[in-house]
């Protein structure tokens, strides 16, 4: 059943006037935008536990594709790796879909299709899917839970989703400006008028405005008209603490298989005091995540891969000699160069950089991860270099655990 209201009508007008994010199809020849969710290697690992054959067709839905960032990334990665399947994009904005289509055409993608329709109407969805992307959408809808339940029903058995919602603390300052602009330029005015007023406010924004102090996002600075409008003039913009987000998932019959990045939600990583770490260890997984969000204060979004309750996948044992580790994106030799002499990896969780301790052998092991060698192959090479097999597997278990929690090293599914 369709769920809408006056604010939803204004939202539709916004994305028709200023499709988001602002993209030029001509840029597709120069770069591929990479992110989470919906990176193919992440889907393989965090949704399917690296157990779903790569030869099995993947039917994916991008629910609310906008101008196509996630859809173009996934379809391109599937095409480059000769993965069978299709990416179906749904959005109600004709203007946004036109841009997404042009981007797909610029890349000669034949595994992607587009449907104009509203997610608030269940009849829009064409069948069921192995994977559903709903990134940056739920927090704008009149009834997020209702829509999430519709998407859950559209999952095939064993399937999962990639979600992103806004988080409140890392967006400090945004809602203050939104409130002011709602008075200065109400939703009843045209999008072009509202944008003009917002630009005038930003040109003379007081130095004390919290938005000026917040470096966790930059849409109002580098995102063009669409970015400024989406951040400060959006007629409906909810933000979820991690607790509220987990509650939303539970109500929809879902549970997270991964919060991105997993280590970001572990406060022990940035609380070096032994007494504090001991207390952290006594907390539940949810409490740890809540403490991490509250203490860091810089989480502007929550990204999660989710599955149906009780169906979280169990990846293979990372120490099984037949498993194949793979770098998520940064090549192993490049990541190894980032390791400091004290064997710590400076890792940026948004605007917070934390030193992550790694085994001293990490610099030698990482360049060997090429997506083809098995763990057993790597162990044999390291044994030739003087590291015993027993010692290697002790080191590897620690190294994989750390880098998996940073979403940097994953496992490859079978062919």
From TrEMBL:
GO MF term set: methyltransferase activity
One Pfam family from the record: Methyltransf_31
UniProt xrefs under InterPro entries: Methyltranfer_dom, SAM-dependent_MTases_sf
SUPFAM superfamilies tied to this protein: S-adenosyl-L-methionine-dependent methyltransferases (SSF53335)
Extent of Basic and acidic residues compositional bias: 1-10
CDD domains attached to this UniProt entry: AdoMet_MTases
Residue intervals of the Methyltransferase domain: 61-161
Protein name stated in the entry: Methyltransferase domain-containing protein
Source organism: Acetobacter aceti NBRC 14818
Lineage, highest ranks first: Bacteria, Pseudomonadati, Pseudomonadota, Alphaproteobacteria, Acetobacterales
């Amino acid at each position: 059943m369709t769920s809408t209201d006056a604010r939803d009508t204004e939202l539709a007008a916004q994305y028709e006037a200023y499709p988001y994010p602002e993209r030029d199809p001509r840029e597709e020849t120069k770069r591929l935008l990479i992110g989470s969710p919906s990176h193919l290697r992440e889907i393989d690992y965090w949704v399917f536990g690296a157990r779903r054959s790569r030869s099995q067709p993947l039917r994916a839905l991008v629910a609310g594709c906008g101008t196509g960032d996630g859809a173009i990334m996934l379809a391109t990665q599937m095409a480059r790796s000769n993965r069978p399947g299709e990416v179906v994009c749904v959005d109600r904005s004709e203007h946004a879909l036109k841009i997404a289509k042009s981007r797909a055409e610029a890349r000669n993608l034949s595994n992607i299709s587009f449907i104009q329709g509203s997610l608030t109407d269940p009849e829009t969805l064409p069948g069921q899917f192995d994977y559903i992307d709903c990134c940056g959408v739920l927090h704008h809808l009149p009834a997020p839970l209702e829509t999430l339940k519709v998407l859950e029903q559209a999952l095939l058995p064993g399937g999962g989703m990639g979600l992103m919602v806004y988080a409140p603390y890392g967006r400090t300052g945004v809602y203050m400006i939104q409130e002011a602009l709602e008075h200065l330029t109400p939703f009843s005015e045209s999008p072009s008028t509202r944008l003009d007023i917002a630009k005038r406010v930003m040109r003379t924004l007081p130095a004390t405005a919290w938005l000026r102090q917040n470096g966790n996002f930059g849409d109002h600075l580098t995102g063009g008209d669409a970015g400024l409008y989406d951040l400060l003039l959006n007629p409906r913009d909810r933000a979820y603490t991690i607790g509220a987000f987990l509650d939303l998932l539970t109500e929809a019959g879902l549970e997270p298989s991964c919060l991105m990045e997993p280590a970001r939600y572990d406060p022990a990583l940035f609380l070096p005091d032994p007494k504090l770490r001991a207390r952290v260890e006594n907390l539940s997984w949810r409490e740890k995540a809540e403490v991490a969000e509250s203490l860091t204060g810089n989480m502007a979004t929550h990204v999660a891969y989710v599955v149906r309750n009780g169906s979280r996948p169990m990846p293979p044992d990372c120490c099984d000699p037949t498993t194949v580790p793979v770098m998520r994106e940064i090549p192993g030799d490049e990541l190894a160069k980032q390791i400091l002499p004290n064997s710590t990896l400076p890792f940026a969780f948004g605007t917070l950089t934390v030193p992550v301790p790694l085994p001293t052998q990490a610099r030698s092991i990482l360049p060997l991860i090429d997506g083809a060698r098995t763990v057993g192959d790597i162990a044999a090479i390291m044994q030739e270099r003087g590291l015993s097999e027993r010692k290697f597997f002790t080191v590897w278990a620690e190294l994989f655990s750390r880098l998996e929690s940073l979403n940097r090293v994953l496992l490859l599914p079978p062919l």
